[in-house]
Amino acid sequence: MSDEYADPSGNTEAFRAFQTAPPPAADQPSRLPLIIGVAAAAVVVVVVGLWLLV
Questions:
Q1: What is the pLDDT of residue 6?
Q2: In angstroms, rounded to a whole number, what is the distance separating the alpha carbons of residues 28 and 39?
Q3: Torsion 8-13-18-20 (CA) sign
């Protein structure tokens, strides 16, 4: 059986690349609720403004 696992410490160049690799980025929270809230607030402002003009 062949060993397909490559140990990064076995090669200096591979180990340096492994050691200095940036940590994985955290997932950003969804902005959808913010967009929906801003859109709803804009609709309310427009409706109130039209109601005051009438």
A1: 66
A2: 21
A3: positive
pTM greater than 0.70 (yes/no): no
| 8 A C-beta contact, residue 14 and residue 6 | yes
CA 2/CA 46 separation, integer angstroms: 69
pLDDT above 70 (res 9): no
Q: 25-40 burial string, b = 16+ CB within 10 Å, else e?
A: eeeeeeeeeeeeeeee
CB within 8 Å of 17: residues ≥ 6 apart: 8
The pLDDT of residue 25: 73
Do the beta carbons of residue 15 and residue 9 sit within 8 Å? yes
